[in-house]
Amino acid sequence: MKFIYFLKELWRRRLAVILAAIAAAAVAVLVVYSVSISPPSLGKRDHVEARGSIEVLIDSARSPIADVGRNLEPLTARAGVFARYIAGGNVIQQISKATGIPVNQIEVAGPAPLPGEAIGTTAPPANIRPYGMQIVQRDELPIVNVETRAPTVDEARELAAATPAAVRDIVSTIQRTENVPDSKRVTFRVLGPAQAVTATEALGAKVAFGVFIAVFGLGLLLIFGLPRLIDAWRSVDAEPPAQEQFGVFPHIPPALPGEPAAPPALAPAEAIAERAQLEMRRGGDG
User: In whole angstroms, what is the distance from residue 74 CA to residue 142 CA?
Assistant: First the structure.
């Protein structure tokens, strides 16, 4: 029933709904496109941000990288484990402490995290938060790629550079606690310094659609709420004061001793005149 009432209300105010849709479409176009009147032109606005990257080799004390006779599959499988671990909360929190970037401002995407690590996700980043990290393992290789996103080049590079140290510190602590022999410990080798560049992307249809929905929803809210607010305001102004509703007039003096109270139906002026006449009679009698 509420949905039917909602549709009927929209139909009664269809002109306002059409105007709200036009306004929402105009705002969406202005957000995504750069409009010029002289000369007339329409071009997509660019979204500028910084992208960083770093590569981490998952190795061992006795590295099989230089030995063609040794199998890399164990390290490749281990790289998949650490890719999931990096996407988890412990490493991201360590990176947050090292860079000073709040952890709730970092959007993380990558392989499904290990149990108990709930921050990472398997889907690509939605680019909702200002900072982002994506962890990708190279197929058939014990290499983990860390790709970062930030408002500035320095911040994107700093995020990428902080990742190997963060995961190395956490894993080293675990190895010392478990008394893992040095010959069996996993090591993390950085394949070159962190890189960062400025990336320019054109705002797409998803951004325009999101802006349209937000503005159009706000317009519908105003269409429904504004008339009701005006009616409520007018009804409050139209209501007489509570004292006048009950015929009570506080400015009339109280009845004299032995004098009957004035009938509630009398108007204030009539009550005062009758009171004056009674006073004059009593004065004449005296």
Answer: 9
Question: pLDDT tens digits, residue range 135-174?
Answer: 888 777 888 899 999 988 899 999 999 999 998 898 888 8
What the block records as the tokens of 141 is 């290789």
Rounded to an integer, the average pLDDT of 11-27 is: 88
Alpha-carbon distance 110 to 67, whole Å?
30
Q: Tell me the CA distances in angstroms from 216 to 23, 219, 222, 242, 274, one per residue in order.
A: 8, 5, 10, 42, 65
Mean pLDDT computed over 230-242? 70
- Cα–Cα distance measured from residue 60 to residue 57, given in angstroms and rounded to the nearest whole number: 10
Beta strands in the chain (DSSP E): 33-36, 41-44, 46-60, 106-109, 131-137, 143-150, 186-190, 195-202
Q: How far apart are CA 257 and CA 249, in angstroms?
A: 19
User: Facing residues of 53 across strands?
Assistant: 147, 195
> End-to-end distance of the chain based on CA atoms, in angstroms?
77
Region label for 116, one of left (φ > 0), alpha (ψ between -120 and 50) or beta (otherwise): left
Nearest to 163 by CA among 55, 271, 13, 273: 55
263 phi, psi to nearest 5 deg: -60, 140
